[in-house]
Amino acid sequence: MKLLLCGALFAASAMPVAAQTLQPVVPPVPTVQPMPVAAPSQAVLRVGTEVPLRLLEELTTKGKKLRVGQRFRLETTEPVMVQGATVVPVGSPAVGEITDVRNKGMWGKSGHLGARVLYVTVNGRQIRLSGAFDDKGVAGGVGAAAVSALVFLPAGFFMTGTSAKVPVGTIVKSFVDEDVPLAMPVAPLAPLPVAVKPAPLPAVPVSALTPVATPIR
Prior knowledge:
- This is TrbI/VirB10 family protein.
- Keywords: Signal.
- Residues 1-19 form the signal peptide.
- This protein has four helices and 13 strands.
- It has a domain at 43-139 and 157-182: Lipocalin, CATH 2.40.128.260.
- It is an alpha+beta fold.
- The protein has helices at 2-22, 142-151, 153-157, 206-209; strands spanning 42-45, 50-55, 59-60, 71-76, 80-82, 85-88, 93-102, 112-122, 125-130, 132-136, 165-166, 171-176, 180-185.
- The chain is 18% helix and 33% strand.
- Strand 8 and strand 9 (125-130) form a beta hairpin.
């Protein structure tokens, strides 16, 4: 009987221990703190900033020497400013490229050329630009060619239009095509003006405004 009682007590004392060992241990979930976003410390020449250019050489289809892929020279006509400082001076060299050429031909066909701006160079750094322009010659002898064709077909065949031509000094509009970090800090923002309301005047009691009658003797 004592043995049974001791065995029961031992089993009862062992049950909580077993129950404790079966409880799962849940590890604490680490909290992720958001990284603070650092404010930009350098000024930037932004995409879309306008860069006015001037053509330094004539482009023409006359003579049939112009080719697709041919490079030509330009220069800036106005300074490009950021925060009041000049980052692209006047006269900075720029480069463009011919993208399309069509020479004048028979039956009054006029010439045509297309071009785009590639980049401007500042302190040895090439800044990518975007911008395009084109020119088309005037179709020549179209009406005369139609009349001559009725009389003698080869007459209209020998009539040609004019060549396309973009003269020296033509102003070409271009834009910055990439963000360019500058070696200058960002200018601090000016404080916003705050309107200060004047302090209200103290109220004057009515009795102070009423004249006091002086008795007549």
